[in-house]
């Protein structure tokens, strides 16, 4: 039987939701591997809405579930209905929505809180020893919830190629082990069944992002 994988989205758009290319890559690689993706998102207001042309917040208000449905082509479920028993794995793509809608990392960093629904889902998969795939900024969720876990968001030294490297330092301060890696590589924390890759934490060609996410998906399915 096809493996069933929950994909949790955080809206639609890199600056205020899920990163569309990352979400699409996850769905493409799951499909290619013969897995069945089941897409979920929390039914909550977004922290704010960003004009992606100007890069600035607007006065609009949008809903995370409604916006995520754009990526899922309407085939999406409320995160509150997710039942870990019927699923084999969990994947959460990146994008600032992870740090704004699924958590408060964008405003509070390592002192952030995680959405109760999102934390509950992560803990349920972890307790059931089912693999969790996280890319781009989403490994911060694991760093906050699972002290001592091993993750990667790419590199821990800031430069033009790695503009968000301070994220790694903040995760280390939470007690997790950060493993430096290239954009096309993944890190597998076998004990916690976590698979992470940096994706757009790196200024890299989009095909390299796609390839790294492909490795993450394959490792998640291997562990499932």
UniProtKB/TrEMBL annotation:
Cited NCBIfam families: PRK11780.1 (NF008747)
Protein name: GAL3B protein
Transmembrane segments: none
InterPro entries reported for this sequence: Class_I_gatase-like (IPR029062), ElbB (IPR026041)
